[in-house]
Amino acid sequence: MRLRALSACVALLCLVTAAPAADLPNDAASKYESIVGQGTEYLIGAQAEDGSWSGYAGPAVTALAAEALMANGRTPSDPVVKKALAYVVGFAKPDGGVYGEGSNHRNYETCLAVMCLSRANKDGRYDALLKKADGFLKGLQWDDGEGHDASSLSYGGAGYGSHERPDLSNTGFFIEALKELGAGPDDPAMQRALQFVSRCQNLETEHNPTEFAAKVNDGGFYYTVAAGGSSQAGETPEGGLRSYGSMTYAGLKSMLFAGVDKDDPRVKAAYTWITKHYTLDENPGMGSSGQYYYYHIFAKALAAMGVEKLDASSGEHDWRVDLIEQLASTQRADGSWVNADERWMESDPNLVTAYSLMALSYAR
């Protein structure tokens, strides 16, 4: 254990992290470097001998952790990352997916693997695997192949195998993976996914003919419109599906990645919802549930939107500084992060530290 701890410390000293953005205040820049360094040190020390983090989750946590390390300066040839990449590749299946045996999370796992391996693919070493993964993911999408035409509220989405319905969280990862695989806004799979995303927004537009749109109509997003509709934040007395933070940022990110213009009413309405509910104290509408997943999507969406400072109902916010301050205040002594709320696996410090480091990579 001493040797492992020593090697982790040496590796930390050798780590070349990307420099924080020049416009970060000195205090925030210093905190950024400190917490990223400590979080990286934690992951190095927590890696299992087989290259995994939280191997019970198949390739998912390992792919996210390896991507987080690369997003913060480590290279694919780094010994820690190299072992993790080999572990992830070991889950590649003949059907093109990258997932654990018997998994009901094939979309999530394959999407995370795609994003990780794409980042490590500068030399084309994973081209063949990624091409097969592209076909696999498109085969999972709910479309004509599953007997759903454009009138179906499931059309275009991606989801879990067990729940037999698509949802916005899965579809958001699906869109991001397609983007990494080279799909543009005109790609048919991307367009189908955008149709599903638009129908999960509480906004009356020509893109959303559902019964739920007018019941809340606040521009936010909820979990799924399919199979009768569901929001993790619950329903309004009128039967509307409540908007909440992580899904609204997921919806915004997905629309932008699918090529929707920033002046589009859907994007503007989502951004307005965000300005009205801006906070890092919780996942708006969900309390502490999924709070670190929220930080990850929050940062990715605002970076994609090109937001520097945000005029919220609570005043002007430099979201990067706010994120750094929040994560600096919640980091544990060993460099990890963990959520006291165990929902959605956020009691796992490997997962939550990976979420946090990914979020911080957008604060540079």
TrEMBL record:
Keyword vocabulary terms for this entry: Signal, Transferase
Signal peptide segment: 1-21
Protein name: Prenyltransferase and squalene oxidase repeat protein
Residues covered by the Squalene cyclase C-terminal domain: 61-216
Gene3D superfamilies: 1.50.10.20
Coiled coil: none
A single MF term (Gene Ontology): transferase activity
Domain of life: Bacteria
CDD domains per UniProt: ISOPREN_C2_like
Upper lineage: Bacteria, Pseudomonadati, Planctomycetota, Planctomycetia, Pirellulales
